[in-house]
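Please decode residue identities from the backbone states below.
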């Protein structure tokens, strides 16, 4: 049945379908079937090379045919598996039967059909398939998209490294910084967060019904099944072998990965809210797009919708990722099925994250700096020079500099003339007075420029 995008329950498959299209072949049910076929094929080929009595090494032609099932896997193949599942009511068994059906007519492979899914429990296929799905999603979509954000922000940090802006701590005026330095702060956080996502080892196991190689050992007692399984997981599939499991791989690595993505999204929520506020203050303007409407009633509106959409979608992603992280490592005794239905939502969770990344990138692409507004804000906040003055007075041993500046400035509007009058009235050496008199809120930025340019 074809469902209209207007009838989908999830906006990821409707309104936002094009934004998350790159994840669809990787984390959909099609993607899961594709990886199941890959795992079954690689296990089968490896068994043929294991020296098992009754299963000779496959010819190159047979190996090519087997791997073509993976390389050429299509939606039609996935639909055929779903048809088989209507009878089996078991999704992994349907994959096994589909593979066997595709090998009919090949004399060499027909003799070895019962080595398809040999000694495997469904979870041997599923856990490795999920790991392969996440491996592809991380490498092909999540990390490259994060890298685009980091590259964009790094360029902005360098471009605006010397553009001064007023800081606000607790919402109140504070020591000045630069636009570039504030963006560099985010870049530094993202570098660390991205590294954690990239470094999570994706685990897999292929050790049977409860993790002890029971079926393997009863069929071929003299084989080193643990070494064999490790070889398939690590060399054939490119995952990290987990030697100690129950029926399921315990999903601890998934929790690590999802937590790492959640922390990254939280950094970007923080950033999106800050940019939203800077747009509200007029520090940033947004490029106009012909035909766009900001409000159905107020024609003047240019709303920061991309940053709002990013924040909302990161929130949805984090809620789902947190549930995945907290639920998946828990299984009653050697196996329960509560993880199965939850795992089918990996694509939804990461889909909302990718949608948030897309919104953030679109928003960043519309930003234009408003240097006049930044300069006016600084010039209206001479009170922030109090820190500089009292610190220099401390250096020269003048009495109670902090207390003097507190009495003079706290809670009062300050002008250039007032602050410079205070400087002139101090007993500072004339050279120091001259240095302070030459400073403005816009030049009192410490090493912000160097820090921004270095990122």
């Amino acid at each position: 049945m074809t469902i209209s995008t207007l009838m989908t329950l999830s906006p990821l498959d409707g309104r936002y379908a094009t934004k998350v299209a790159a994840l669809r072949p990787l984390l959909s049910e099609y993607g899961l079937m594709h990886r199941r076929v890959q795992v079954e094929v690689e296990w089968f080929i490896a068994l043929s090379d294991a020296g098992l009595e009754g299963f000779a090494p496959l010819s190159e032609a047979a190996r090519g045919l087997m791997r073509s099932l993976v390389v050429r896997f299509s939606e039609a193949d996935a639909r055929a598996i779903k048809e088989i599942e209507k009878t089996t009511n078991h999704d992994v068994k349907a994959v096994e039967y589909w593979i066997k059906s595709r090998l009919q007519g090949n004399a060499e492979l027909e003799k070895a059909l019962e080595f398809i899914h040999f000694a495997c429990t469904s979870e041997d296929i599923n856990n490795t398939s999920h790991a392969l799905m996440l491996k592809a999603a991380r490498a092909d979509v999540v990390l490259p998209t994060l890298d685009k954000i980091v590259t964009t922000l790094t360029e902005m940090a360098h471009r605006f490294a010397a553009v001064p802006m007023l800081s606000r701590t607790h919402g109140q005026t504070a020591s000045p910084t630069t636009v570039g330095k504030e963006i560099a702060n985010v870049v530094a956080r993202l570098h660390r967060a991205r590294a954690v996502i990239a470094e999570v080892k994706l685990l897999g196991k292929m050790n049977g019904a409860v993790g002890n190689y029971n079926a393997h050992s009863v069929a071929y007692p003299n084989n080193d099944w643990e070494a064999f399984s490790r070889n398939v997981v690590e060399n054939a599939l490119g995952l990290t072998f987990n030697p100690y499991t129950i029926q399921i791989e315990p999903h601890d690595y998934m929790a690590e990965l999802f937590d790492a993505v959640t922390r990254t999204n939280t950094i970007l929520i923080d950033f999106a809210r800050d940019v939203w506020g800077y747009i509200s203050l007029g520090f940033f303007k947004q490029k106009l797009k012909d035909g766009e409407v900001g409000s159905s009633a107020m024609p003047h509106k240019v709303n920061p919708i991309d940053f709002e959409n990013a924040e909302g979608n990161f929130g949805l992603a984090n809620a789902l990722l947190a549930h995945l992280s907290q639920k998946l490592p828990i299984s009653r005794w050697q196996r329960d099925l509560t993880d199965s239905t939850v795992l089918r939502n990996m694509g939804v969770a990461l889909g909302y994250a990718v949608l948030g990344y897309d919104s953030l990138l679109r928003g960043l692409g519309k930003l234009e700096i408003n240097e006049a507004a930044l300069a006016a804000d600084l010039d209206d906040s001479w009170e922030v020079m109090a820190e500089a003055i009292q610190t220099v007075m401390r250096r020269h041993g003048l009495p109670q500099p902090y207390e003097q500046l507190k009495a003079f400035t706290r809670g009062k509007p300050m002008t250039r003339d007032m602050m410079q009058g205070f400087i002139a009235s101090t007993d500072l050496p004339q050279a120091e007075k001259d240095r302070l008199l030459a400073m403005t809120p816009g030049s009192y930025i410490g090493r912000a420029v160097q820090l921004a340019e270095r990122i």
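Observation: The radius of gyration is 31 Å.
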